[in-house]
């Protein structure tokens, strides 16, 4: 008796005067048939909704990465204030060790140029090239990868071959060729790095789009009348974003390393100071003045580390499913 | 009354096979038509063909689909896109995967409203809450900010239904809407669909393999086998009096709670063999498994013959005058 009472109370009320089908009324004897499936889940949702940003800031590796990177960015931004003079001009006695002279806290190189000035001005170039080249690679990679992955068929085959074609050539060799053809300048180096990094991004994007376009929610979106552009941008892209962002942060780190390597080889823009060119210039003195290579090297390591930490943290934070499980 | 949906001689083909063959049926406004059949009988493909969302390899070879008198198959793709979600909508089998995991419920429903009805964001949000209320979600406003993974399967299916009916479509196709759900939730979801059918006067095309659901909720039933319509009728007629040997086999194979057919007391009946391949062989696709097979069954597929009002069957054996079978008596008795 008790049970049937519960059943009638929890049953979904009919709004219209139409009585439920006969078969249904029989089933009212089974209280569980009309148990609400909703209250169970509602309970644990309250208070557990964290905005992505807060979740991001609770991740220790992201905090460390952002801290490191913002220090470098601030230094780069303040470079003209801290060291208004040309960092390539002679500032003091050559080969001063760090701490030897208070005016040059990080010492001077073989031509008497201030190492600290070089590092902060070099940060501008490295970060600029790293980020802009990644943007170029990201734009190209997204365009090609999304088209190939979403469209499939012949277009996919052709674009996949194009991606593979780029990947069979060692990217650094290709980069050197590209820079050697164009006159090395910040612009050409940036474009060249962007052009050699897009295939990596395109591959990731293509793979993501290929699997995501088969998902039921994409079919559901099509059945609701959404067009291809909308489906790609609103349905598929946000789901592919975690891996794209991780790839992008790694790509930025790679781009910074590539620029450093180019400058080290003397193929960078000769008119600006860069971390790579500082290492290149200091390598002849590695036995007598190792700080000339170690300091810019350390800065490169820290920058790349910061970017990778951020990338890892973003993966966790941007994925609501993963974020929930922690 | 003019039918809402009129499908005539619909054939869907892959390169060498015809998984849907010459299928005709109608759905009246505010009517529930159920299509039953086992896996691989072409039910889902029929639904996708109606939406014109067939996989790339498949295409509609022949036939017509008319919604409210307008031929859907000749409408240009851009215009068809406008119709999907507005005039004709669909809900899918898997509520766990048919919602976008990275967008909130409010955004997903809101986008349908913004897209088709051009509502502003705020208005779409308000109306989304109303829709959630319509599909009986408690605390709709709070649910708007939830992500799909925070909800149970039954709630997600309700949300799918809310999205599908957001623009008050004329026809709602439900492709196995409750297969992935608990039995307890199944009844709720079907009750909801039935209420929406009455309140919004939408035609409901219920695709299922669950005969129990059909008996309870459908106005008419089509039994499909290997892409062909075998029999059509009201669930009462069809279940009490199945004509086609396949329908009889299907019913005999369903477990009952009472009587000798309970699986504890007797082995459940089965139809010997596997579902015929969709290869376009001549004759009736059920012939290899049919116990009443005639010579003609191997040669040509029987015509759909009307045996009573709204009752059709396609079978040579049923009308075989030379071999008066049990089935034949039933037909005469009608």
How is the main sheet of chain B built? 8 strands, mixed
Instruction: Determine the mean pLDDT of chain B.
Output: 85
User: What average pLDDT do the residues of chain A reach?
Assistant: 82
The total count of strands of chain B amounts to: 12
Largest interface: A-B, 46 and 56 residues
Please identify the structural class of chain A as seen in this structure. mainly alpha
Structural class of chain B: alpha/beta
Quaternary organization: heterodimer
What is the CA-atom radius of gyration of chain A, in angstroms? Answer: 29 Å
| DSSP strand count of chain A | 0
Query: What is the straight-line distance between the termini of chain B?
Result: 25 Å
CATH superfamily of the largest domain in chain A: MetI-like
Order of helices and strands of chain B: EEEHEEHEHHHHEHEHEEHHEEH
Query: What percentage of the residues of chain A does DSSP assign to strands (E)?
Result: under 5%
- Number of separate domains of chain A: 2
**What is the N-to-C succession of helices and strands of chain A?**
HHHHHHHHHHHHHH
The low-pLDDT segments of chain A are 1-49
Architecture overview:
Chain A is mostly helical and 326 residues long. Chain A folds into 2 domains: 2-45, no CATH class; 52-325, MetI-like (MetI-like fold), CATH 1.10.3720.10. Chain A is 70% helix and 0% strand. Chain A is built from 14 helices and no strands. Chain A is elongated, with a radius of gyration of 29 Å. Chain B has a domain at 245-333. Chain B contains 11 helices and 12 strands. Chain B has helices spanning 43-51, 77-83, 105-117, 121-134, 140-143, 153-164, 183-200, 211-217, 235-240, 245-252, 326-333; strands at 5-13, 20-27, 32-36, 59-67, 70-71, 88-91, 171-175, 203-208, 220-225, 228-233, 305-308, 311-313. In chain B, strand 9 and strand 10 (228-233) form a beta hairpin. The longest helix of chain B has 18 residues, at 183-200. The two termini of chain B are 25 Å apart. The mean pLDDT of chain B is 85. The interface between A and B is large, with 46 and 56 residues.
């Amino acid at each position: 008796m008790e049970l049937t009472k519960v059943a009638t109370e929890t049953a979904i009320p009919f709004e219209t005067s139409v009585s439920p089908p006969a078969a249904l009324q029989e089933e009212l004897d089974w209280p569980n048939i009309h148990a609400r499936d909703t209250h169970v889940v509602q309970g644990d949702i309250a208070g557990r909704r964290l905005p992505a940003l807060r979740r991001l800031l609770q991740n220790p590796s992201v905090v460390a990465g952002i801290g490191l990177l913002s220090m470098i960015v601030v230094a780069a931004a303040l470079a003209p204030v801290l060291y208004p003079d040309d960092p390539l001009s002679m500032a003091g006695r050559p080969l001063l060790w760090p701490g030897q002279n208070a005016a040059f806290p990080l010492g001077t190189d073989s031509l008497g140029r201030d190492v600290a000035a070089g590092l902060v001005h070099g940060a501008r170039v490295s970060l600029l090239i790293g980020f802009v080249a990644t943007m170029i690679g990201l734009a190209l990679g997204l365009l090609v990868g999304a088209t190939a992955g979403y469209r499939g068929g012949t277009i996919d085959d052709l674009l996949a071959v194009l991606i593979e074609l780029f990947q069979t050539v060692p990217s650094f060799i290709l980069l050197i060729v590209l820079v050697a053809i164009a006159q090395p300048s910040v612009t050409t180096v940036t474009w060249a790095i962007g052009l050699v990094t897009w295939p990596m991004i395109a591959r990731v994007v293509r793979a993501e789009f290929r699997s995501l376009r088969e998902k039921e929610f994409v079919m559901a979106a099509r059945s609701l009348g959404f067009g291809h552009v909308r489906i790609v941008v609103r349905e598929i892209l946000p789901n592919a974003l975690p891996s794209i962002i991780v790839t992008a942060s790694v790509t930025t780190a790679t781009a910074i390393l590539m620029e450093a390597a180019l400058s080290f080889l003397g193929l960078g823009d000769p008119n600006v100071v860069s971390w790579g060119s500082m290492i290149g210039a200091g390598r002849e003195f590695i036995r007598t003045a190792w700080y000339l290579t170690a300091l810019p090297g350390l800065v490169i390591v820290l920058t790349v580390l910061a970017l990778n930490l951020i990338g890892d943290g973003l993966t966790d934070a941007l994925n609501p499913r993963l974020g929930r499980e922690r | 009354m003019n039918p809402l949906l009129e499908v005539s001689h619909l054939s869907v083909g892959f390169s060498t096979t015809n998984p849907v063959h010459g299928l005709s049926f109608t759905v009246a406004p505010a009517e529930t038509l159920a299509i039953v059949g086992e896996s691989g009988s072409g039910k889902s493909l029929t639904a996708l063909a109606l939406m014109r969302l067939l996989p790339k390899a498949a295409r509609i070879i022949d036939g017509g689909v008319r919604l409210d008198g307008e031929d859907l198959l000749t409408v240009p793709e851009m215009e068809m896109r406008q119709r999907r979600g507005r005039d004709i909508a669909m809900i899918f089998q898997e509520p766990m995967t048919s919602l976008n995991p990275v967008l909130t419920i409010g955004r997903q429903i809101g986008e349908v409203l913004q897209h088709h009805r051009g509502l502003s964001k705020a208005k779409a949000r308000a109306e989304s809450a109303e829709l959630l209320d319509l599909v009986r979600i408690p605390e709709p406003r709070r649910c708007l900010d939830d992500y799909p993974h925070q909800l149970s399967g039954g709630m997600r299916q309700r949300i799918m239904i809310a999205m599908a009916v957001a623009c008050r479509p004329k026809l709602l196709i439900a492709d196995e809407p409750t297969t992935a759900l608990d039995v307890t939730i199944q009844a709720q979801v079907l009750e909801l669909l039935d209420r929406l059918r009455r309140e919004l006067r939408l035609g409901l095309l219920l695709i299922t393999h669950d005969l129990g659901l059909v008996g309870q909720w459908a106005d008419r039933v089509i039994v499909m086998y290997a892409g062909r319509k075998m029999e059509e009728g009201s669930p009462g007629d069809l279940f009490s009096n199945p004509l086609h040997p396949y329908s009889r086999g299907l019913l005999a194979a369903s477990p009952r709670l009472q009587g000798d057919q309970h699986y504890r007391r007797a082995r459940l009946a089965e139809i010997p063999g596997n579902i015929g391949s969709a290869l376009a062989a001549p004759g009736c696709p059920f012939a290899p498994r049919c116990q009443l097979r005639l010579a003609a069954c191997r040669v040509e597929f029987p015509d759909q013959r009307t045996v009573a009002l709204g009752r059709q069957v396609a079978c040579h054996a049923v009308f075989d005058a030379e071999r008066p079978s049990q089935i034949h008596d039933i037909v005469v008795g009608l």
